[in-house]
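cron nightly-structures :: item 1 of 1
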Amino acid sequence: MSEANDWMIFGPNVRGRNCGACKACCTLVPVELADEWKPHNVRCKHLRSSGCGIYAKRPAPCRAWSCRWLMDASTAAIRRPDLAGYAIDPSLDTILADGEPMEVIQIWCDPVRPDAHRDPALRAWLASMAERFGMVAVVRWGAGDGMVLAPPAFSDNGEWFEHRGVMRTEDDMRDRLAEVGARSIQDILTGRES
């Protein structure tokens, strides 16, 4: 299944790929469980040494979600997430760039391996995705800690563009709007809160 721009968000496992000993998504990726919200970079309470303790009854988001490495043949040069130190989310996120919404690729990076995003295989894959879909990436390490990562095709100097800073999700923005009574998300980003 794919979105209108042909970005695949669901699919079967690539032949020969399986999770094996990898449990990266159970820690790196946020998920809404039936009884609570599991933030990114927090070990799921159901994770056991052998894998998911409730695998047969796992929540719908866990059943539906697969990392990009597992279901996208274009990631052939990338190592499995537990070995690479990051998981590529098949779901896009939206950020504001110069006040305009922009779809971005999400990379959930292990904060213990903060430079994992420098993996040459990941960078090559992101460059090919930028060419194909015109998208940049967001690397996330923890709550609010992230970086916009744009391939050389997006920069004037032909180098990778990295801008690390506070990354707010749409839900964070809604909460902040309610908290400060700002008129818009743009007011928060520009510091014009009321």
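cron nightly-structures :: done
The first strand starts at residue 31 and ends at 32.
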